[in-house]
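user: can you give me the structure for this one chain? tokens are fine.
assistant: on it. calling the predictor now.
[tool input]
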Amino acid sequence: MFQRIYRVLAGVKCLRVCQLLIIVISMVCYVSYFFYVSEAMCRDGSPTCCATEELQKHILGDVSANQPTSIVEDILFQVNSDTCKTFPNGDKKIWLLVAVVSTYEHFRTRNIIRQTWGSAIQDNAPGNVCLVFFVGKQQSNFAHWIQFQNEIHKYADVTQINKDDTYLNLVHKSIGILKWTHSFVPSVKFILKIDDDVVLNLPNLYYRLLMHSYQSKFIMGYVGRGNKPQRMKTIKNYFPKDYYSGDVIPNYMYGPSYVISGDLVLDLLTVIPRIPLLRIEDIFITAISASYTDAVHVGRCGFLYTTSENVDHFQWGTSFVSSHSYQPSELASIWNYSRIQSHHLSYSAIFLQQL
């Protein structure tokens, strides 16, 4: 009798194990199908795809013999943020650094970011997230200087580099972000480089990063491909022919917002001093410099290049991550609309919704 009961119980246990295996296998197949569909969408040009692409390697040829410049060493931090130094329970490990490229006099824009999406960076985040504004130096009037001093003392979230705040010096800010990251948060998992005119959908960003937590050395964003270099010297994105003679610019990530995995930072800082400087920030960092590392591109992942006129894109649960070229008042309006029309979702809920 006991043997019969044992066999029955064993059969029930085996049945449960088999059912569990079927569920696990089904989920694996479903996720695999999801990625296959995502890859197909990417090939079809969908802005919400998220596919890995190899970079063109060694775009400028062999640079190993080049005498290294002091471009990284020359970047100094005149004001240094303390915002990434304190977290609850003494946990200093940073999952994501949100590095906002701003202009010295954009006081209102920075305040709006702090009040809108910047105020929610820790909501439902898988780990510690910190936000730092990166600005350059500027010969401003005394009133602006006082305002800036008040800002850095009140918020402690601004880092200032020793380069003039001009469009052509944007590349120095991006290099400064890499240097600052390596110096102060070297174990960070991801860095989001983002301009201060960008609307950001945080839950979707976190979902995208979680999906790529186990991928190494990548740059994620909107991939620019097939673009022709601007050869007119009067254009701000002037691309000298003696720098690169190709008729098509190598694939790169558009500059308003892109993610660099933390394990790629030191590699970029190592190769940048040996590469002739190009003043077009996104191409120099994400195409030319990255081509001398083991980096891959992951795009487009919901990063929009053009301004989205559909505010519904920024509701929680949609697939869009970011869009740029908004005025400060528009940043606030979109944020407020999204908060009213949507509800906060945890990253696990977002994952299930995307499936």
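assistant: here you go. Confidence is low (pLDDT under 50) at residues 28-41, 344-355. Residues 207 and 351 are 6 Å apart (CA to CA).
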